[in-house]
Description:
The protein is α+β, with helices and mostly antiparallel strands. It is built from 3 helices and 9 strands, in the order αββαββββββαβ.
Amino acid sequence: MNALRLCxxxxxxxxxxxxxxxxxxxxxxxxxxxxxxxxxQETRAQGLMHRDSLGAERxxxxxxxxxxxxxxxxxxxxxxxxxxxIDKEGTIVRIADMAPLTTDGTPSLYPARYALEVNxxxxxxxxxxxxxxxGGLDTLPQP
Length: 143
């Protein structure tokens, strides 16, 4: 009976996995961060919507094939997030906090190739600021 219960629990966990996205590790000012990679139009549109939590050292990175001004909103996203917009060289050009469940757009202000979402306050807690560089971007799946 215990083996059956364990098997059922494992199946529920596997089936309820919130993501089937590729996962990578990047370096953010000396801090390792495990990120889900959203590199297609569909996965970028879905983002972190409909989730209730995000692990402490986890995030989602949105990868684009060009540098352009970006705008993110939090419609259907229940987790308070901070976002870093990153240029093609891996330099953070803007960090902003975003409130859950709002359609207010958060603009990059500058052209960005990547956007990195983490739990709200993560960048501040780690001392990460505009101008810092992100390592490991060259290993990410591309659009």
